[in-house]
Amino acid sequence: MSFDFCAFLCKLDPFVEYEFQSLSGGLINITVRATKTSHSDAGKFSGQGSLILKYAPPFIAAIGEEAPFSQTRQDVEARALALFEPPNGPLSELRQSTSISVPLLLHYDAQEHVLVFEDLGRLETLDNYLAAYSREKLGLDTKEWETCHQLGYRIGEFFAKLHNLRSLKEIQASVSGDLSNSLTRNLVLRHAVLPIKNHLLEYKIPDAETLFARVLDDYHRHDLPDELSFGLGDFTPSAVLLEATGDGKQRVAVIDWEFSREGRGPHGDMAQFLAALHLLLLAAPSGSSSFMAIEALVRATCSAYCRQSSSWLGQTRFNSGTVTRDLRLRLLRSALIMHGREIINGAVKCDCEWSRNLSVGSMVRVGAWYLERAGNDVEDMISDANWFELLKEDNRIILDLMREVIN
Predict the structure, then answer these.
(1) InterPro entries annotated for this entry (predicted)?
(2) pLDDT for the residue 195
C-alpha cells in the first residue's frame, strides 16, 4: 500500500509546493521528507524549510498485510510527543538537561493517519553511524573514543531520566487515559516472544523448552507499580538519530514513539537497546576501531544510566528491607531475559554484512546464556553456582547497567 503524500500536502498547505524524498530505515510506517520548492515562506508551516511526514498503514509496512497493526498507533506517538512540548510538557525539561532532541509534532491528521514533524536535519541512525568505523583498522584515537563515549553518556542519561519514577508520576498527573498501550501487546508476542521457542530448538540449545518458558513467563509477568517506567517501548539503535560528524556534542534525537508506554525501563528499553549493540560488539573484530567505538558507547551508556538512576533504580515505596532487595533482583532477572531474548531475535533476523564472520548459531548461544543465568526464579538466579557464572558475563553489559541493583 502506498500513500499520496503530494495530494495530502496540497490539501493541507495548498499555496506551497513541495518535492518528496522517501526515507529508509522505518519498518513500521512509510516516511518521507517534503522540501519546499516555493520561494514564499507563507502557508501552514511557515518557518519550516522541510517537513517529515509519517503515514501509518493498517499493518507493519516492512512486512505487509500479514502483519496487521492498528493505525491508532499514531495516537500513541502523538500523545508521547506532546509530553516533550515546551513549556508545559511534563518531559520538556529532558530536552534541555540532556541535549537530546525529540521531534516537534506540527500536525496530526487522525483520519488520514499522517503525522507531520519538524525536520531535524540530515541525520543517520546510530547503527549506521557505528558501521562507519573500520573493522580492519586497529584502535581508536583519543578524539574518536571521547566522541563515542560522550554520545553514549548522553543516551544513557536521557533514558535514565525518562525512566525515573518521578517522570511517570508527572505524566500520569498530566494526561488522561491508559498509558499501557495495549495495541503493541499481541504484536510483540507474535513477532518477538513466541518465535524464540523455534529459534532455540532450531539451533539445538539445551533445555530449549525451559528457556522459552522463562521468556514467555517474564513477558506475561505482572509488573508491580514500582517497576513501571514510561519508556520508548521498542528501543533499538535505529531509534537514535545523529549527525555523522562531531565531537560527541552533535545533534542527537530519539524518534519512533508509537510503542511508547507505561512499561519496563532498565529491564525493557535498556536491555533491548544493549542487546542490539551487544550483537555489533560480538561481530566486530576484537581491538578494531569498530569494536572499540561500540565498546566506548556501550560502557558510557551503562555508566550514565547507572549513575543517573542511582537515586531511584529499584527503589520502592518501602524504604528498605527484603522487599526492596527482592524487587531489585526481579529487575535484574527480567533484564537478563529481555537481553537474551533480543540477542536471539537479532541474531536470527540479521542479514547485515558485518555479521559475515559470526555464525547465527554462536550468537543464539550467547542469547541463550542470558536465559540460563536468569534461573527459574530470583532465588535460583542468585544461587552460588549460578551467580558465579553470571559474574563471568561477556563484556559485563547487564552487570554494568544494573550495578545499583546488585550492589
Answers:
(1) Kinase-like_dom_sf
(2) 98
